[in-house]
Amino acid sequence: MVSEMVRGRFGWTVAVPVVAVVALVLTWGRSPGDLVLLVVAALLMGAVLAAVHHAEVVAHRVGEPFGSLVLAVAVTVIEVALIVTLMVSGGEGTAGLARDTVFAAVMITVNGIVGLSLVVAALRDQFAVFNPEGTGSALATVITLATLTLVLPRFTTSASGPEFTSGQLAYAAVASLGVYLMFVFTQTVRHRDFFLPVEDGGTAPDEDEDGHADPPGGREALTSLALLLVSLVAVVGLAKVESKPIETAVDAAGLPHAVVGVIIALLVLLPESIAAVRAAMRRRTQIALNLAYGSAMASIGLTIPTIAIASIWLDGPLALGLGSTEMVLLFLSVVVGVLTVVPGRAKPLAGGLHLAIFASFLVLTVSP
Q1: Exposure b/e, 232-269, CB count within 10 A at least 16 = b
Q2: What CA–CA distance (Å, rounded) separates 70 from 182?
């Protein structure tokens, strides 16, 4: 009976991480052929999806808003692992990889995921309804983190180029982590109710009628936690195996190196996007926004400190400052985001504007 329940709940999400780890053992330290690389890429994608699935099971067990936090942190761990593995295996060409990936994650979350979620929710109920206090504080945190870590390096003068000095980088890492932890405390302890789903009347929806399955038991949640760790190991290892082919393919296509960062961010945030859209379809726009903004701030607040520590043994410069085009897109995202969040409800137009900004980001990345 228990085994049937486990198979029903998990299914492929048990097999894929195990197979991915086996593939990692067989390909580590080797130069596999194209066919093997395609299989490894499929397993890498499957491991990412499995990791976020198991994070979602654990999240369902602990409830909101802790659930959104678990998903965001799990996704960010994968992102950081991919960035570090590519930077370790690369050279000077990876100097801006962390910046490109983090900025891509910000654009995907605050425009792509937010825009799509708002359109889905607003088309269904005329307005997408959420708590402006909680969502506004999340957006403010994202803006602060993005400005401190991605904009300021372009204007500092102590180091040449869009870089921080060692001292400035250390401060940025500590400040980013501190700001992120303050938000987590606000979201989970001090003002937890600001981040719970709301209906048109501003109250939490009836959990018994939201379409959710029953929360998993303790043993099932622990199983998911173990499989989550296995999936993350598989993602880190297989990303290392695929790192060179990704860069080679981008170079062969004549695309800017920033495309590598976009590929990483799209790969990692795809499951998060699906989860957010599902939440929006269930009239839980607040959860969708928690996922989007939470992933954006975790991407910055956890990636920058990790990269700062990794820079101790990484060779070459670490470029963090955005270019003028990226800063314009970030500024536009901030303005539209604030105007979207302040009323506490959004029309489909608001989501469409965010999607237009996201599409512009993709086009300008490929053809700057």
Answers
A1: bbbbbbbbbbbbebbbeebeeeebbbbbbbbbbbebbb
A2: 16
pLDDT tens figures, 330-343: 999 999 999 999 99
For residues 50-71, b (16+ Cβ closer than 10 Å) or e, as one string?
A: bbbbbbbbbbbbeebbbbbbbb
pTM of the model: 0.81
Give me the residue spans of the domains in the chain. Answer: 2-366
- Output the CA torsion sign for 318, 321, 325, 326: positive
Tokens 């088309």: give the residue.
Answer: 123
Task: Choose which CATH entry (1.10.8.60, 2.40.160.20, 1.10.1060.10, 1.20.1420.30) describes domain 2-366.
Answer: 1.20.1420.30
Distance CA 299, CA 265 (A): 10
pLDDT in tens, 265-294: 787 787 778 888 888 988 889 989 998 998
Backbone angles phi, psi at 82, to 5 degrees: -65, -40
Please give the average per-residue pLDDT across 100-125, as a whole number: 92
pLDDT band at 29 (very low <50, low <70, confident <90, very high): confident
